[in-house]
Amino acid sequence: MRGFNLNLWLGGFLTVLVIAGALFAPLIASFDPVFDANLMNSELPPDATFWFGTDAQGRDVFSRVLYGAQVSLTVGIVSQIINSVIGLSLGISAAYWGGWWDDLVNGLTNVMLAIPSLIFALAIMAILGPGLPSLLIALGLTNWSWTCRIARSSTLSLKAQNYVQAAQTLGYSDTRIMATQLLPNMVGPILVISTLGIGSAVLAEAALSFLGLGISPPFPSWGNMLTDARELIVIAPWAAVFPGLAIFVTVLGFNLLGDGLRDMLDPHMRTRSE
Amino acid sequence: MTDAPLIQLKNVHVGIPSRRNALSIVKDVSFSIMPGEAFGLVGESGSGKSLTALSLIRLLKKPLKVTQGEILFKGKNLRDLSDRAMRDMRGDRIAMIFQEPMTALNPLKTVGRQIAEMFVLHRGKGWHEAEKMAVDALASVQVPAPEERVRAYPHQMSGGMRQRVMIAIALACDPDLLIADEPTTALDVTVQDEVLKLIAELCAARGTAVLMISHDLGVIANMCQRVGVMYSGRLVEERATYDIFANPQHPYTKGLLGALPRLGSRHGAGGRQRLVDIDSLIADKESLLQEFCYEPRNSIRDPRVRAGASV
Lengths: 274, 311
Hints:
The complex is a heterodimer of chains A (274) and B (311).
Chain A: H1 6-23, H2 25-28, H3 61-97, H4 99-114, H5 117-128, H6 132-142, H7 145-159, H8 162-169, H9 174-182, H10 187-210, H11 222-230, H12 238-265
Helix pairs in contact in A: 1-3, 1-12, 3-4, 3-6, 3-7, 3-10, 3-12, 4-7, 5-6, 7-10, 8-9, 10-11, 10-12, 11-12
Chain B: E1 7-16, E2 23-33, E3 38-42, H1 49-56, E4 65-73, E5 76-77, H2 83-89, E6 94-97, H3 111-123, H4 127-140, H5 146-149, H6 159-171, E7 177-181, H7 189-206, E8 209-214, H8 217-223, E9 226-231, E10 234-240, H9 241-246, H10 251-258, H11 285-289, H12 303-306
Parallel strand pairs in B: 3-8, 3-9, 6-7, 7-8
Antiparallel strand pairs in B: 1-2, 1-4, 4-5, 9-10
């Protein structure tokens, strides 16, 4: 029997907490994140009414963090799905087919790794303009190189496995081998890199919004909340601490969840059915 | 048995194609297998047995290719088939089982699912029906409690059981030809015997022809009606099994049979006998390029061999 999987439970708990906060933000939040501005209440410390305090415009930081979670999670999850689809299909097919296609994908991956992804995302945002759809595209196109690398190296080692060769002799098509023999057997490392990727996409969104290219004020995202709070960091530190804490909890939650899932999905750790 | 061979290899060469100095690894191999017949290919490691088998199902790894010759399956040249048609043939009409049962199954899928996949792939069945058929397939290879065993993962089974599952997968679609590439080498002796009997019985019952590849002459003697002996990429001798054991013609075959250890025979000083071996190593690349590929073998000095001809 196995011990208690702390990573899975703690990571799962934090992730569910953040997702629930994002989904039920309209029910939980007692203030509107944009329009309930009241300069009379500006820069109040946390109390019973304003749990996380208020910002310079007197808006409730707690409500803004909840609504910001919607943006951050959407960006993190959707852009990582785009990254995974690109990285997996390029990486698996490159390693499986080899030849010029492998050379091309490898070259492309190296170029992507050489360019700092945030700078590349900035360039794409500059072309597409700020807003959620361009954020998704920018982050979805710039962070697939690690997934691709891992998919490729997993495929190279799996390709030599007897069951992949056996599948060829049994009449499986190339795409079927990729989907049923290769992909499921690399779920562990891919899941780990994907949850890390969600974490870094959340951070990248915060960075882009901080730089003014992500979600435009007054609509809240954790990144532009940090931008706004930067000037008040001495007077009203809560306005910066809570969005920062939200980013921290989200990234930590996804990373722990990835580790926990990897342990759980390993079939050799499953107990015997008898 | 009909007169038309199920599969016929005509002067097949396998090698690395290049403009100059093309290197052939399998040279001029011709043999045929009748429907329902068991044909054995013996030879030491590196003699080209497995390459010959892989050329049959067109799964040679780059840069290896069939450079010359015809591979006729029911009269059709497999070399002319489209990739798609060849893929449909594999697993359906020609199936293959391997040496390593421990790693030849996907570790993430239940064995039932893996058997069922053959019915989905080649018979167009739905998963539900296919999984029911998998229970019968598992029962046919004499796995106890097949209704429960279909839900087992490969790591929950022993080597012998996994090889049975492989046989069930290979025979799921009633192929015309089963290629067995050293199917029992990785198993222990008692299990070997059971697995061989199982292959022999199932193939006899279904009329499946077998191409048995082995370096174990005992396995071949038990299983096959005819044997081909491969040496350095050539088929040097090909005859009925009893004939080859009683009366080997080619010097290499003689050497191979002479090297068989015999139970209970002891002579020489101290009642101990040294195992007989065949002198020298297998021919290397340079000598492969020459016609005299048997030259390095000191004890084999037969003029017919030096001419590179089969006897």
